[in-house]
# Entry
Amino acid sequence: MTAVVLFALMFLLMALGLPIALAIGLPAIALILTPGMFPDGVTFSALGQTIVGQMFAGVDSFDLLAVPLFMLAGGIMEMGGISRRLIAFSDSLVGWVPGGLACACIVASMIFAGISGSAAADTAAIGAVVIPAMIRQGYPAAFAGAVVAAGGAIGVIIPPSIPMVIFGFMTNISTSQLFAGGILVGALMGLSFMTVAGWLSWRNGYGARRPFSAKEAGQTFLEAFWSLGAPVVVLGGILSGIVTVTEAAALAVFYALLVSVAINRELRWKDLPEILVRSQATGAAILFIIAMAKVFTWLLTMQQTGQAVGAAVDALALSPRALLLLVMVVLLIVGCVMETTAALILLVPTLVVFVPQMGIDPVQFGVLVVVNLAIGMLTPPVGICLFVSCGIAGTTLGAISRAVAPLVAAAVVDLLIASLWPPLTMYLPALFYR
# Structure
């Protein structure tokens, strides 16, 4: 009963427009402090100390330092001319196919995903450059925004990935292995999005095609050379074991500064305070959600909600594959109505218990969870990538939601493949770490 009340209050507060962290934390704190919730003899002061202690424990992790650092690296690269060079290089490679600029947007997003770790940062950095260019080429604003949003969602699948950092922190699963597991899935989603965007562009006559030029490709490659080095440095350091994920995040910040200030010379030192404040406001919001969600999940644990859910699942007597597909459907639905970090913190402690029953590796499950929630970033009412693209494209949420539907359908097919074919997520972790 406590769990029902908690979730009902949380969704009510979200519907009223309260910030996600407060919508999660306030109902839990109120119920914890309600007389009669805990045995007599537990003082109000002791409960208050428990709440503060749980909030602190929720963010007391060296691994979570990667979150604000990756946000800062993404902010620096957005302002340092890196996204513009990546788009120019990508366009020189695929501009000759139907929907060339749309496909170039996806390619650039996949490269940028290897730097920022944030879908919102990826969408904003690429969208600010490519959406106006796509509209000038004759693409509808809603379609341009949908393609950019889809590319941005790949930002949390291709490593580094902030949701994977959070998942690894919560489950003690190697974040580096999660990163390796996301590479092929992210590549598959990128190819799927390019195929859908190219087909829709060809069918509707969107955009303009131009002949391939090896000279232009070589020139744009040289201009983007140092920008292309960022994912190589970050991912190479993580997958080789030279640096930890948090150290790689710090390395990404240093590399971004080096390229943006000393090489591209498009970022001035006086711009750094603005970037720092903007990126850390987002990073702090994520950490505050984690802290509040820790109190929420602690109360659910004390009320033995996990055991009740486990008993209900056992009563269904599902096969491992059927249970896996059921969990995927639940996550898809949750991703549509709940912010990614909140969904991770609230659901993962319960769902990870069923990994042995689903017959899959914990690393595969972690990647599948992140892919599910990435799809949620492309669906209303809380799809963050859609909102970012809407603002840049100057279109409505309804129009961009209709335009993104074919891309979401392609992503769901990719999710099904990743769920039923383990090598897609497990080949690289086995290659690098096992």
User: Anything to note?
Assistant: The two ends are 44 Å apart (CA to CA). The chain has a mean pLDDT of 83. The chain is about 80% helix and 0% strand.
